[in-house]
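user: Please supply your own:

assistant:
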Amino acid sequence: MLTPLLHFLGVANFAYAIYYEFYHINIPREVSKTRHLYGGPWKYLTFINLWIQLFYFLIALLNHFMGTEAKTRPQSSLLQTLRDGLFATLAFPIGIFVGTIFWGLYAINRNLIFPTILDMYIPTYVNHMLHTTVIPIQIWELVRTFHVYPSRRKGMALTGLFCFGYLVWICFIAYAGGFWVYPIFKKLSPEQRAAFMLGCAVLGGVLYVVGEFLNSCIWAQTIEKSKLKSKAK
């Protein structure tokens, strides 16, 4: 019963954050010109991640009532297969990435990622819904729910494709719109910017491997039983 409740809270948290982003965050152009320019909220990884998380927890919640909790993929429902694949490739690595990078840069110099003036327009509790809740809720999900991971080659390829696609997107915005999405990119030289982007892409891949490793450690007995069942067949 606790796990379905967690999934419901995940849906509620991220749905409300998206709703608040659309209807209640009104930052004047003189405060943040780039926010109103090319790409709208879809230029921000935080916003994209909100949709990833909402989609994931909605699938996870529906799976309790319409899917399966099978431990081997041949017995898995479509909902479980979607849930597990989305968790492995996007929900966990991108969710942890967003929270880690945001608060890491915030601790170094918040003006690199979230200037002080934004506190007037984005309440603290909403900021935490955008950037903090994803970390504990994804870790709790990792501990409470067994996920069947895809092959590492396929899983990392999908995570890498997403990271590459987003980097291309913000570079295109810089080219077409004439501005960088995040303040930190303005302060870096071209070489530093390229190194930072590469480091972020590598971190995304590392977080995929971390999720896979932790899943295999936490659910080692379940995985072993699944292998034995497969051999018995």
